[in-house]
Amino acid sequence: MAKKSETPPIYCLKRGETLVGEMQLDRERIAAMPAGERIRVELRTGRVPSRLRFWWAFLHEVVSSTECCPTAEALHETVKLMCGYTTPVLVKGMTVMVPRSIAFSSMTEEEFTKFLADGLRFIADNYGVTPEQAGVAA
Questions:
Q1: Which is it for the CA torsion 132, 103, 76, 45, positive or negative?
Q2: Does the CA dihedral 61-64-69-71 come out positive or negative?
Q3: pLDDT tens, residue by residue, 6-28
């Protein structure tokens, strides 16, 4: 069964007490709504792509400098497991912890901020590498 295509979200910036579309397309979609129309808004902060890029750049540097894991992806999965970012799954009567996704659709920016802090601490404690030492700017 095909998934219904979803309309992409409109991102806004708060200016005083007003929400203004972030990009031109956002503003055009808002302008297309009839005047006086009741609009449903779900308030939550958007994820910050640059912070995710920082995380992956840092993981690559840690793997390159320590050879702690075969790939940045393997280190990423290790961090999620060791920091408890998991989902319990029952397999043949045993509970197995499966790493959770940190995708934009799976985790809020607030959750990612906590994950990032936990992950950086885990890597520093276990592999002795910080972003400053790796030369990766946050």
A1: positive
A2: positive
A3: 778 888 888 999 989 989 999 99
Query: In 14-105, which ranges are continuous DSSP H helix?
Result: 24-31, 49-66, 72-82
- Strands (E) located in 1-138: 12-15, 18-21, 86-91, 94-99
pLDDT digits (tens, 9 = 90+) for 51-110: 999 999 999 999 999 999 999 999 999 999 999 999 999 999 999 999 999 998 889 889
Rounded to 5 degrees, φ, ψ at 18 are -115, 145
pTM: 0.70
Residue with tokens 């005083």: 16
Which residue's structure tokens are 């400098």?
65
**How many C-beta atoms lie closer than 10 Å to residue 85's C-beta?**
20
Neighbours of 67 (CB within 10 A): 9
The CA-atom distances, in angstroms, between 99 and each of 29, 35, 36, 72 are 37, 46, 46, 15
Cα dist from 42 to 10, 12, 35, 75, 107, whole Å: 10, 11, 20, 34, 15
